[in-house]
Design a protein that fits this description.
lipid metabolism, Rossmann fold, 1-alkyl-2-acetylglycerophosphocholine esterase activity, about 475 residues, alpha/beta, AB_hydrolase_fold, 11-stranded mixed β-sheet, 15 strands, two-stranded antiparallel ribbon, about 25% helix, hydrolase
């Protein structure tokens, strides 16, 4: 999960073999370096290990102050730094579109007086794909992402105001018609780490779309750093305001609520995609719309193959992927990118593990760990070990050598460039993404995730997942 990124605190990484931690922490990420933001925010002052983050100094005693406008910090050329996403490697041009979803029957878990609503983006093989490249983040979301309360600073420790996040462009064309040739395409759901927005793994998502998948990224409203809705309304994360939380039971409750609401969000997305497919792309629920018109780009609804659905997630999103597969049989396969599947305190069964880890899965599942002493594979993660022992479906565990928790996100490709422009301290970059060469980390992550879904959703096996590979010596196979 990502709370240290915003809820590293949401990384639920407390070992059950030890006594209950004095200060539980959230699910998602494990980092041997300092904890930032929510990770520090939601941990008890005396806490030990949280969802993949090693406790550092005492947590903040008060909520993170409201973010005032952050003045731009001039670089050598008098301009803020900019970042560039790596190009997709598949044969198809990519299109993207966004959609607002609402669940009239469900109060928002963080603001019960409001109806639960989400923003999702769909990424897909496009026909021709003319037009300008879509931005990675909308202007308002980009502006917030770089403030002290945004994930750029809160989760990744980047100095506020030094990066122009609105300048980053994807390789996808906004609202391009979908490529109908080739017939229906498998659908992949993507869930980001705790506190990260749905845009914070665009590099991986675009690559999967260029290889022939329809990828749906989900913003978990009021968890994600920021969510911009049609009309410019911005919903900010509640986590910075929980920075002073000290009660272990309260922290545990927050994390359990986060995972439960995420799974409900995923099920809502699947329900709406099913309705869209049946209605040819017209949104039938009042108030749900894309750009105000409620219609998907031409041909997109017709290529959604909802009999072949997979899910990939980072940190808390990886936990979400496992739990969603456990709870909803419509999802056939999943990948967990360095997310623990454990809560700080035991539940009524006496276990700290989520039910996905406790029960295991019948579906194929891939665990991808990072090179930290406490998160390098199932032997180092109690929830992964339990999952490994109880899962009946095909499963494997690999670890990216020299990596850290952010290596499976856009941080791997974007932060080194920002560091070269003076917008990211070298120590911060190493803490976030480790020492693995960025281009190798990106290539390995893309190859393993694509190989997994090709094998289990398309029946195409390149044998990369048969064992250690000379193609990617950076990726260690965990026996």
């Amino acid at each position: 999960m990502h709370a240290s990124s915003t809820i590293a605190a949401a990384r639920i990484a407390v070992r059950t073999t030890a006594p209950p931690p004095a200060a539980p922490q959230p699910p998602g990420r494990r980092t041997t370096g300092r904890r930032r933001g929510l990770s520090a925010a939601l941990t008890l002052a005396a806490a030990a290990t949280v969802l993949g983050t090693v406790a550092g100094p005492a947590a903040a005693a008060a909520p993170v102050p409201a973010a005032a406008p952050v003045p731009a910090v001039a670089g050598a050329a008098g301009e803020r730094a900019t970042a560039v996403l790596p190009a997709p490697t598949g044969p198809f041009p990519v299109g993207t579109t966004s959609l607002r979803l609402a669940d009239p029957g469900r109060p928002d878990p963080w603001h019960p007086e409001r109806t639960r609503e989400l923003m999702i983006s769909l990424w897909y093989p496009a026909a021709g794909a003319p037009g300008p490249r879509a931005p990675q983040m909308t202007p308002s979301a980009a502006a917030h992402f770089g403030t002290p309360r945004g994930a750029g600073s809160f989760n990744y420790g980047l100095p506020p105001g030094r990066t122009d996040w609105s300048a980053t462009r994807t390789h996808a064309r906004q609202d391009a018609p979908a490529l109908r040739a080739g017939g229906p395409r498998p659908v992949l759901l993507h869930s980001a780490g705790l506190g990260d927005p749905r845009t914070w793994n665009t590099g991986l998502v675009e690559d999967l779309a260029s290889r022939g998948y329809v990828v749906v990224t989900v913003d978990h409203t009021y968890e994600a750093s920021e969510v911009e809705f049609p009309g410019g309304r911005l919903a900010e994360s509640v986590f910075p305001d929980l920075a002073g939380l000290q009660d272990p039971a309260a922290i545990d409750a927050v994390l359990r609520k986060a995972v439960a609401s995420r799974v409900d969000d995923v099920r809502l997305v699947l329900d709406r995609l099913t309705a869209l497919r049946a209605q040819g792309g017209e949104v039938q629920v009042r108030g749900e719309a894309r750009g105000g018109d409620g219609v998907l780009p031409a041909g997109l609804a017709g290529v959604l193959d909802l009999d072949r659905v997979g899910m990939v997630g980072h940190s808390a999103g990886g936990f979400t992927a496992a739990q969603a597969i456990h709870d909803d049989p419509r999802i056939k396969a999943g990948v967990n990118l360095d997310g623990t599947m454990e809560f700080p305190l035991p539940d009524s069964t006496g276990s700290t593990f989520g039910s996905a880890a406790r029960d295991g899965l019948d579906a194929p599942f891939l665990l991808m760990g990072t090179d930290n002493p406490d998160s390098g594979g199932h032997q180092q993660q109690p929830s992964w070990e339990a999952f490994w022992q109880h899962t009946r479906g095909w499963h494997a565990d690999v670890t990216l050598a020299g990596s850290r928790h952010g290596s499976y996100t856009d941080a791997e490709s974007l932060l080194p460039r920002l560091a070269r422009q003076g917008a990211a301290p070298a120590a911060t970059v190493t803490d976030d993404i480790g020492t693995v060469r960025p281009e190798r980390a990106v290539a390995a992550t893309r190859a393993y995730v694509a190989s997994f879904f090709d094998r289990w959703l398309r029946g195409r096996d390149d044998h990369l997942l048969d064992g250690p590979s000379a193609r990617f010596p950076e990726m260690r196979w965990v026996p």
